[in-house]
Amino acid sequence: MLLNESYDVLYISELNCVFVKWKRYCEGDDYRRAQLHALDIIDKHKGCHYIVDMRDGFRCSSDDDTWFHDRFAPLIYDSGCRHFFFIKNKYSLLDDEIENQSALMKRYFSVHCCENFDDIKLILLSDPEFLK
Fold this sequence. Notes:
The protein is an alpha/beta fold. The chain has helices spanning 28-44, 62-78, 95-105, 117-126, and strands at residues 2-3, 7-12, 17-22, 49-53, 83-87, 110-114.
């Protein structure tokens, strides 16, 4: 578990997922520290899913965006992650960014956009394949 003023990163064993909640803008080492902690969790839990909560808003720098897609996404894929969930508000100023990120993430993952954690829980618990 990694908690600070910019983000929370934790493992939810019931769903075998890493949960990253962005609370405010961060970049560079701070941004990457959260992602690398998520990778450590995924490495420890076979088939772990990735959930990112963007409801409180999030944008990352172009350097961090490039790092995420070119370096980080392949690493979590290689660690066994296959499902990526976005939690977002129904209408958000981030819709374009989330749409772009979703398109890029689909190179590696099954991508799901949901409005709350309960929607994700329903998806994961309704299909036994998710919990293997």
